[in-house]
Amino acid sequence: MENVTSETSNPFGMRAGGPAVYGYGDANADFHVIGDHPGVHGGVTTGVPFTENGAGERLQRVLAEVGLLAETGDRPVVDDTFLSYAHCGVPEREPTDSDYADFERFLDAELRAINAHILLPVGDRPLRYTLQEHTSMAYRLPDSAAELHAQDIRGRGFMVLPVKEPTEWDDGDEEALVDTLTAILESDYRQTKGIPTLVG
User: Fold this and answer.
1) Residue 121's CATH number
2) In the predicted model, is pLDDT for residue 151 greater than 50?
């Protein structure tokens, strides 16, 4: 099913009941990037995920290099990509597990509406959520995203590509992510939909 919307910012009309950084991008995207919350990955002022801070700038640079962003910046020009957060609200403090659970419904709704082929959870919490909800790996969750950085994992109808927290990237982490994304883009990745759960 193709979404009929030309809106880039909050295309599904989400309302969190307070300040929030809603999803941004192509509502028919094949690639869905999932960050933590605005206090970690930016966008409090711009209203756009992965803007205004170093983590967002690093990630945008990679997405642009492989062609998933046509332009970077506070209002990036996306190409087949959607950006959103596990906790879209603008927190006054570090969110609790209960806070994340309360906002999870917004992410779930976006995931169902977009139905992307490739999920890119950025950082530890988005990765744990994605592996628990969309793969068979819940029984052996990693301690951190660094353990699975840039390794593709077949999930339940998705391919999951974990991304280490960008502020913690070491030499080679950016290149590894570019290389894996390039390989995925050069493959017939759309065949990932409907594949039985495999752990790569």
Assistant:
1) 3.40.470.10
2) yes
